[in-house]
Amino acid sequence: MPRQITLADGRTVEVDCLSCALTSGLITPTGGVIYESNHFHIHQDVAYPIRGLVILASKRHFHCMDELSDEEQIEYISLIHKVRSEQRTRLGIDMVYYFYNEDTTHHFHLWMVPRYEWMGQFGKSVESLRPVLLHARNQLNDEENMKKVIEGINELREGLRDFVSRTE
Ligand SMILES: [Zn+2]
């Protein structure tokens, strides 16, 4: 189902799939692209302002894990591994939650959500994820936190700058 997206410059476009619009470059995510290869695109959704949160999306439009090509499978795990490593070394992130659902209205994308101490108030594991994201969206959307989030994006981009996955 097509949806209206308002671009940063104020224009409105209609897209069938938000992931396609992002990974093809039609929409530039706030904070910019963290990493891009032939098969994948990494960015942050700053609507959920959590420092170090990363979305790793395929460039191809598909939904299920068993649709990854051989090359995509290899690059996928090597990219997750690399991002995780940069989250730890550059941003001091000790724990990450990973979230991915095949019935998305977008296309194949993995959320990598850092686990911070303040999230403990919402419990642990999968049931805490939605309240954590909503809290970030509604309570942490201030200038000071957004600055830290953008810094985090820049750090990760720097960390991934020269990364070449094993398939390329
Ligand atoms: Zn798509």
UniProtKB/TrEMBL annotation:
This is Diadenosine tetraphosphate hydrolase. It comes from the Bacteria.
